[in-house]
Each structure stands twice: as C-alpha cells, then as structure tokens.
Design goal:
- By secondary structure, the chain is α/β, with parallel strands linked by helices.
- The chain contains 28 helices and 29 strands.
- It has a 4-stranded antiparallel beta sheet with strand order 6-5-14-16. A 4-stranded mixed beta sheet has the order 10-11-9-12, covered by helices on one side. It has a 4-stranded mixed beta sheet with strand order 27-26-29-28.
- Helix 2 links the parallel strand 1 and strand 2.
- Helix 1 crosses helix 22, helix 19 packs parallel to helix 21 and helix 21 packs antiparallel against helix 22.
- It is globular and about 105 Å long.
- The two termini are 67 Å apart.
Length: 881
C-alpha cells in the first residue's frame, strides 16, 4: 500500500473508508495464519453462528471482542489464528427448508430423505453465507481461508471418530428413557433446549379413594400407576405398600402407594400421583419402585389408545374434558389458580411433552469429572471467576445426555441395525452387510444433536483426528469468547470432549461476556419489535463507533447491559474528534523532517503527553490481558479525548502558530506525529478502519497499520515530574475557566489573576506562566505574599490561592440579582417535583419509566441549584472583600 496522496477531508466518511480497506486487508492475506510462522501461537475458534442466521447484537459483541484480541496479538508479534465457521443448526435449518416446501405445497416426506437433504445443501450454498458476509462488514479479521462448517467432510469424519470412540468405551449407549419431546418439531430436545415460561394454570385436587392430591396435568391421570408420599410423612404411613382400588373416569383403577424421598411433603397435600410415562420425576420413582409405564399421550401430542374414550383428543382438549367428567363424577375436591413454569421448545415454542422413548445417550459423568478437575486446577480459567460456581453446579449434577434427534438434516448416527438377528453395529465407515449374520442392514434414522459436533469444534476445525500441523501449533486454543447463555450448551461439552479426545484442554481461558438488552433493559425479540439491527447501526454511525461501543460495555462484572443510539452516537463523536485532531496535526507539518535527530530538552507539555501516553499503553495492555475490554476502551478514550485533544493540542498550537521559533515548532511537530502514530496503533484493534485511514496519511508509515507493532512501554517513558508539574498547571487553568464560566465572562476577555502559591508550586507556576496565560487567557502575577483584593473571585488549587479580579468585568449587583432570580425559579421546580414524588398514588400508579424520569429530573435540577448557589456565594464573598 502507498500513502494517500489526497489531502485529508474535512469530515470523516465511515462507509467509504470501510469499503476501501477491508477488501485490501483480506486480499493481501493479512488475516492468514501459518503454522510454520515464527512467534508464539495465539488461537481462537469463533463460536459458530447458525448457518440460518444473520448478524445480531450478540454476534456483533462476541466477534468484536475476539477481533480486538486477535488484532492486538497479531500486532504484538504472535502467530495468531482466528478460525471462522458456521454451525449446521439441525432443527433451525430443517425448519427453514420445510417452510419453503410448505409454500410450494410439498413436505419433506414427499421428497424423501435423500432428496430433502440435497435440497438443504442447495439452500446452504445459496443462502447460508449471509452471516459470514456480515462479519466482514464488522471488520472481523479471521482467516477466511480456513472457514469451517460443522458438516464439512473433515468435521464429519471427526464426528464419526468421536462417536465410535465413545461407543467402544461404553460411554454411548441406546436405551429407553424419558425425554423432552416437541410434538411440533417431532424430535427430542435436551434439557437445555427447553425454555421455561411462567404461565397461569389450574391446580386440580383429585380424590383417589381415601387420599386427595393436586396436579396441573389432570389429563395424565389416565397414565397413573401409583401414588407416592414422603417416607417420613406420618399422615399417610398407614397407606404405604397398599394397593388402592379407586374410582376413575373410566371405571375403577388400582394404584399402589409407595414412599419416596423425591416427594415434597409440604407441596399440595403431600401426595403425588405417579405417571412414569409423562414426568421425569415420576419416571425415576417408577424405576425405583418397579411401577409399570402407561403411555397415554403420543408423539403427536394426542391421546393414545391407552387413554380409552379420550383417544385421539389433543392433550389440552383432553385436560378440559377430563376435568369436566371428574367433576360430574364427584372426583374433584377443589380447583385453585396456580402459576408455574411450563417447558417450551426453544425453536417453535410448543409445550414440550415428557415421553419415554428409545434414544442414544452419552454417559457424561466420567467426562464431566475430568472437565471439573481442569477448571478446579486452573488448567481452564473462567473469566469472570464467579461463573465457575455455576459451571461446578451443573457439572456435578449432570445427567446422561440424549444425543439423538429425529431429524433428517444433521450428522447421521453411524449405527446400523440388523433386523434379522437384532444386532446393532457402530462403524467409522458405512456398512452394507451385517458383520454377524451377513444379512442386510439399515442405518439408524436419527441424527446427532447439533451440540455433539459443536463440542468437537476447537480441535475438529484444526484437523483432528489427523496429526495436522495446525493442531500441533494452535491447540489447545488460547481463549474462548462467548456469552453466559451457552456456558452449558457448549463450553462444558467442549471441555469434556476436548479432554477425552485429545487428552488436553480445548482452551486455556474462557471469557464469559455480558448479554445486550434494549435501551429499557428488556431482552430483545422479534415479537417485541425491539431487535436492533447491527448493520443498520453501522450504516448510521460507522463500524468503528459501533465496535467501540460494544467494547465499552463489555464489563466482566455486569451480566446484562443496555445499548442505545445515544451511546453509539457518543462514540461516533469520538471518531470525529480523532479525525479532526488528526487533520489539525497533518495540516501543521510544513517543514517537518521525519527522522531528524532531536536536540535540547523537551518542554513540559511534550514530556507530559509522552508520559501520559506511556501510562495509557501500560493500562490498555493490562486491561486486555485481563479481558477488561471496557476498561481498556475507557482508558484510551480518556487519553485521546482529554489528554491529547483537550489539552495537548491546545498547548501545541502555541509553538506551531508562534512565528520565529522554528526549533520549538519542530519539537511540537515531532511530538504530535509520534503521539498520534502511537495512539493510532494503540486504538487499532478497537477501531480498525479510521486508524488505518489516518495512519496511511502520516509522514512515516509502513504497508499497513495491521503489520505495525502494538505499542509497548520502554524505560524512561514515564515522567512522574512532568505529570506532577502539569497537574498544577492544568488545575490552575481549570479553576480559572470554571470561574469564567460561572460568572458568564466572555472567553475573549483577558482576566487579571494573582496567584499566591505554596512554596513547592511557585517554581512550576513561574516556569509555566506563559502557558497558563495563553490557555486561560489571563495576565498572571505570582506573589507568595499577596492577599485577596476586593471584588475578586477566589479559587483554591492544591493549597495555592488564585484571586481572579472581577472589577470592570462583571456587574456584581446585576449578577447577584440574576442569580437570586434563577435560584428562586429552580427552587420552585425542585419543590414541585419533590411534592409529586412524595405522593404514593403517583409513585405506585404511574409507569415505572415516568417515575424514573421524574427522579432524574429532580437530581438534575438540584445540581443546577447547587451550582447557582455556589456562584452566588462567590459574588457575596467578593462584595464583602
């Protein structure tokens, strides 16, 4: 690349800059990684978004944080690899294609399995790359040449290898167990794929002969095979072990009463009905007491033949019918309103039905024990540390993982059934004949849970099970960046599979970031209409501003954060501030000689800004090393906006614009270029586009800022004396400016100021008097023996007193009258709001957001009153001499 010859424009155009640089970066191979390259390896695998998806705020936050780390490490000399990819998303993808077929008047069954899978592959090739294109828009600098898909041939081979290994070790098995079944998607769901939603229901108390119990699912009464009480519940001790012959809706039934510790004696009447075929707790009770299983609700959500006269009814229609019938028979004691959590399919929101089904399972307990030890021994470090407790709890209470799904899209389970002899054969390669009897085989129709292949992601993407150079170089990966909502879905499974398959941790660090809410703190959803489109935000405010916003909210101690246009707009202003500061520097480089050796002592402002830059570099490096992205962003923001723009640029204008002092001008130019160039490199991982654009225009630059080294702090860069002395200067200037502002004195008016310094400040104020006079627009006198003159405002700065003469500048009487009037007006407003907030009917009945706005308004008006009263106090003090 060559330096831009065109002059820098007077306004920053993010779109043009972004469209220019990203294709160049990618085409030049700057994102590529090479296992043979020098440098300590640093690697990240991108949490693979669903191939059906498009960029949302969660993706944007997750990938922005990863990109910051990768760009930082790449510039810092590491051999950095960031692997991108997408997940085949079994249920979600199948639903998308089935909807297309439905619109065409077809179903997947019309096509047949093979043709349907081919149709999904075609859809994936045509439409499945949306999100990867959008990630490029975000500036993601991943190695696109290594992009992976969970159903790529290599990754599919890894899935088979993992399945066979686990099966051969007895850790994968097939058996009957109660599962979460979605009647709409027609597949089993893991516990983690079931969402809980609070709903209103009826708690129906049913008579079972001498016992009464409550239930929210009276339709499952048809599948009852027992009653249960707690072993220590003396109320029902006489019934334990008995078989009760009780009336029901379809004649009489026999139910055996058992004692089991799973029963909560304080819930309801302390008696529960046991329906082993339709409740996970009942299933376990039934196993322990050898109760039979009766399935009365089918996989279609309708009542089965075992439901007798209710057969064929929808389960919820049956609930209404059976309650009415029991009421007619006098079998209902009472009905009470009840609110409880209902399990829903995470995809289609259908109420999940617990059903007993033959499925494939992983016995994960032995894998979880090893993964638990890895975190306890800090071989895997979870950041923030508070999430380890959640990880421990889940892993210590882990249950067998149902990995089979009744779908057509996904990794087909590599098991073949022989109907002739009933044998099952698991193989790395497809089988055509039974190894046992030679008869024909049929492959298991189910596919694997999507999270099975995702659990292999950190090493399957690097070539496992082959001994690939990428695997040897970049595995274990350095860090995983992800949201807390998939700590169990994905992180725990990767830990278990990584340690089992490779005997090494899959990552050294896991950084758990916050989730983003809307401006009112609500979870974003399409149904609420509050989803923020990252592409639209980037279009309006620029990608760099959006990325910096995301970094600024990534605080490790906060679970949920809000994002609003105002917040993004503030960082667009930051980008504009940086652009305008760079224009000022670039437009004042006439006569600048790059590489010219400096002579003489640097002035105080130059020493100070270089020291502040060194402190900023040190802090940013520390924060990034601790994944404190918000602190890193805040640190560099404060330096650019306040130290560099608000202070140093104003001080540098003095030698730049002063005629006849070429040496001072060259000194200022050198510092300006050095500080700006270093700051751009420091800021690049956060705001890659604007930093590259400006960097290319500097007198000294290379091929790309991406290839430039990340700033480091060397010896002698810190200058405590300069920072101490400049603090005195800045505090003095700020105090004078505050008085000017409070007294509404025009910035063009030159004020007379007398400083009565403490001994240790006298020399500093004397040496910097010209600087103070220019910055504060004053005539400064320094007199250790001075006393406050009449009509002068007073400011105290670090023990020194500043006397700002107001004589002839401010009409003291008029100003006092104005302030009195303003204070009365604000006091009335404060009193009105206080009265409103003191009324219980307002606070309790008004919408919460209205009440909060009034409280904010009250705080603002109180602050205004305090400032006005402070100004009035100054006036009265000056009048009193």
């Amino acid at each position: 690349m060559t330096a831009e010859s065109a002059p820098i424009s007077d306004r920053y155009d993010p779109t043009a800059v972004e469209q220019h640089w990203y294709p160049l970066w990618e085409s030049r191979g700057y994102f590529g990684a090479d296992p043979a390259k020098a440098g300590k390896p640093f690697s990240i695998v991108m949490p693979p978004p669903n191939v059906t998806g498009s960029l949302h705020l969660g993706h944007a936050l997750d990938n922005t944080l990863q990109d910051i780390l990768v760009r930082f490490k790449r510039m810092d000399g590491f051999n950095a690899l960031w692997v991108p990819g997408t997940d085949h998303a079994g249920i979600a993808t199948q639903v998308v294609v089935e909807r297309q077929l439905d619109a065409e008047g077809q179903s997947r069954k019309d096509l047949g399995r093979e043709a349907f899978v081919e149709r999904v592959w075609r859809w994936k090739e045509q439409s499945g790359g949306t999100i990867t294109r959008q990630l490029r828009r975000l500036g993601a600098s991943c190695d696109w040449s290594r992009e992976r898909f969970t159903m790529d041939p290599g990754l599919s081979r890894a899935v088979r290898e993992a399945f066979v290994r686990l099966y051969d070790e007895g850790l994968i098995y097939r058996g009957d167990y109660i599962v979460n079944w979605c009647p709409r998607c027609q597949t089993v769901l893991s516990d983690l794929e079931v969402e809980r939603e609070e709903r209103d229901a009826e708690f129906v108390y049913i008579k079972y002969g001498p016992l009464t119990l409550g239930t929210v699912r009276p339709e499952t009464k048809l599948g009852d095979t027992g009653l249960a009480v707690h072993p220590n519940d003396k109320r029902y001790a006489e019934y334990v072990g008995q078989t009760l012959h009780v009336p029901s809706v379809d004649g009489e039934i026999d139910v055996r009463v058992v004692a089991d510790e799973a029963v909560d004696p304080d819930f309801g009447t302390g008696v529960i009905k046991v329906t082993p075929g339709h409740d996970p707790v009942d299933f376990e009770i039934g196993r322990r007491h050898n109760l039979p299983i009766r399935t009365v609700i089918g996989f279609d959500g309708k009542m089965t033949a075992e439901a007798g006269k209710y057969a064929g009814l929808d389960r919820f229609e049956c609930r209404k019918r059976i309650v009415a019938d029991m009421q007619a028979l006098g079998l209902i004691d009472r009905i009470e309103p009840y609110r409880h959590a209902v399990g829903l399919c995470y995809r289609c929101k259908t109420v999940v039905e617990p059903l007993v089904s033959k499925q494939w399972y992983v016995q994960v307990k032995p894998l979880a024990e090893v993964a638990l030890a890895a975190v306890r021994e800090r071989r895997i470090r979870i950041v923030p540390r508070s999430w380890t407790k959640t990880y421990y709890h889940w892993m210590e209470n882990i249950r067998p993982w149902c990995i089979s799904r009744q779908l057509w899209w996904g990794h087909r389970i590599p098991a073949w059934h022989c109907d002739a002899d009933g044998s099952v054969h698991v193989s790395r390669t497809d089988l055509t004949a039974c190894p046992k009897c030679g008869g024909p085989l049929r492959q298991d129709p189910d596919v694997l849970d999507t999270w099975f292949s995702s659990g292999l992601w950190p090493f399957s993407t690097l070539g496992w099970p082959e001994d690939a150079p990428e695997l040897r170089t970049y595995y274990p990966t350095s860090v995983l960046v992800t949201g807390y909502d998939i700590l169990f879905f994905w992180v725990a499974r990767m830990a278990m599979f990584g340690l089992y398959m490779t005997k090494a941790v899959p990552f050294h660090d896991v950084y758990i970031h916050t989730l983003i809410r809307d401006a009112e703190g609500q979870k974003m959803s399409k149904s609420k209409g509050n989803v923020v489109d990252p592409l639209e935000v980037m279009e309006r405010f620029g990608t760099d501003a959006f990325r910096f916003t995301l970094a600024s909210i990534a605080a490790p101690t906060v679970r949920d954060v809000r994002i609003s246009d105002d917040r993004v707009e503030s960082y667009r202003n930051f980008a504009n501030k940086l652009w305008n500061a760079s224009r000022l520097v670039l437009s004042n480089l006439d006569g600048y000689e790059p590489g010219r050796k400096r002579t003489g002592t640097r002035p105080l402002p130059d020493r100070w800004i270089r020291s502040r830059l060194a402190a900023t570099i040190r802090a940013v490096r520390t924060h990034l090393g601790r994944y404190r992205f918000n602190d890193a962003a805040s640190t560099v923001y404060q330096f650019v906006w306040h130290d560099f723009c608000d202070w140093y640029l104003e001080m540098a204008k003095i030698p730049l614009y002063r005629a006849g002092d070429g040496a001072a001008r060259r000194q200022a130019q050198e510092t300006l270029v050095t500080v700006l160039e270093t700051t751009l490199r420091l800021l690049h991982p956060f705001m890659p586009f604007i930093t590259e654009e400006i960097w290319q225009r500097l007198p000294e630059h290379g091929e790309s800022i991406m290839l430039a080294p990340y700033p480091k702090v060397g010896r002698g860069h810190a200058d405590a004396a300069a920072e101490r002395d400049m603090a005195i200067v800045m505090d003095t200037v700020t105090a004078i400016r505050n008085i000017r502002g409070e007294m509404r004195i025009s910035p063009a008016t030159t004020l007379d100021v007398t400083a009565r310094p403490v001994a240790e400040h006298a020399a500093v104020l004397g040496a910097a008097s010209a600087l103070i006079e220019t910055l504060a627009r004053v005539r400064l006198s320094i007199d250790p023996a001075a006393s406050r003159p009449a009509g002068a405002a007073l400011a105290v700065v670090g023990g020194a007193e500043l006397y700002v003469s107001l004589e002839g500048v401010v009409d003291v009487a008029a100003e006092r009258a104005r302030l009195d009037k303003e204070i009365r007006k604000v006091a009335e407003t404060v009193g009105f709001i206080e009265g409103k907030l003191a009324r219980p009917e307002f606070v309790e009945r008004a919408p919460a957001e209205i009440v909060e706005k009034e409280r904010q308004r009250l705080a603002e008006q109180r602050e205004v009153r305090e400032k006005l009263e402070a100004s009035l106090a100054w006036i009265r003090t000056s009048e009193g001499g």
